[in-house]
Amino acid sequence: MTVPQITLNDGHTIPQLGFGVFQIDPPETERIVTDALEIGYRHIDTAAAYGNEEGVGRALAASGIPRDQLFVTTKLWNAEQGAETTRPALERSLAKLGLDHVDLYLIHWPRPDLDRYVATWRVFEQLQGEGLTRSIGVSNFHRPHLQRLVDETGAVPAVNQIELHPAFAQHELRAFGEGLGIRTEAWGPLGQGKYDLFGDPAIVRAAQAHGVTPAQVVIRWHLQQGVILFPKSVSRERMAANFDVFGFELTDAETAAIDGLDRGLRVGADPDTATF
Ligand code: NDP
User: Fold this and answer.
1) Boundaries of every domain in the chain
2) Residues forming the active site
3) Entry pTM
4) Ligand 1 pocket mutation pick from 19, 21, 22 by most atoms within 8 angstroms of CB
5) CATH architecture of residue range(s) 5-193+225-239
6) What digits encode the pLDDT tens for the residues 73-105?
7) Any idea of the CA torsion for 147, 152, 156, 160, to the nearest 10 degrees?
């Protein structure tokens, strides 16, 4: 099973399909990430805010997989944004992960009310220059946040990690970012189980046609658009199924039917107004 590699605007590559660990209990994380690595996942998406970087790090160390075959993302929590606080936050994440660098470091939310993401980004560039992270990017940035970053720093983030699933397809934001050379990462790619995505007739029909599960259809829908994703599951069986998505292809008609499910249904926080 070969996961496609996507080349980012800084020349580094990222496995298009990975494993996300949001809401995985810290005591369970080592075992669950070990399962994911055994299944074949090589891209792990965590964050300081998830509280489980240590478990991720233990699983990576125990796996014996060479560092250059792993892709690890973590994220700077909102309270740590700023010229003085960003570097220590990454150093703490690296210590917990047991790594000397991550592959991708993200500003977790723009928090426009704090007005610190531009200053934070300048530190991100230094950290990248020093090799503490290979690539740098953002998460939950809307168009004005991206535009301001580009205008004030001249830099273009490697990725924007945004809420993205069939009922919230984010066409405009994606097109804007991708026009600048920013790759889109989907969070909540399965809608976080918060609406009946897997029972939708468009998904069920495609699943039956290909003899696969609804979740596998949704993952293919993301992959075929060039989106990077990392569905989360605590179940070894479901994480294996989520990784077994390279043996079929959705037709244009099936893709169009799933595209038709977009109804602007946000299941998470709105980046313009979030204050956590
Ligand atoms: P997902 O859309 O990946 O959904 C996860 C849910 O789907 C869980 O309830 C899981 O249950 C269930 N599930 C997984 N696989 C299957 C399957 N094959 N069949 C049925 N149900 C399934 O949501 P996430 O929020 O976890 O998003 C993925 C990742 O994105 C996160 O883990 C995190 O890394 C990142 N993220 C980033 C955010 C940001 O602000 N940047 C915000 C939120 C997430 P079970 O575990 O029981 O299988």
Assistant:
1) 5-193+225-239
2) 50
3) 0.98
4) 22
5) Alpha-Beta Barrel (3.20)
6) 999 999 999 999 999 999 999 999 999 999 999
7) -50
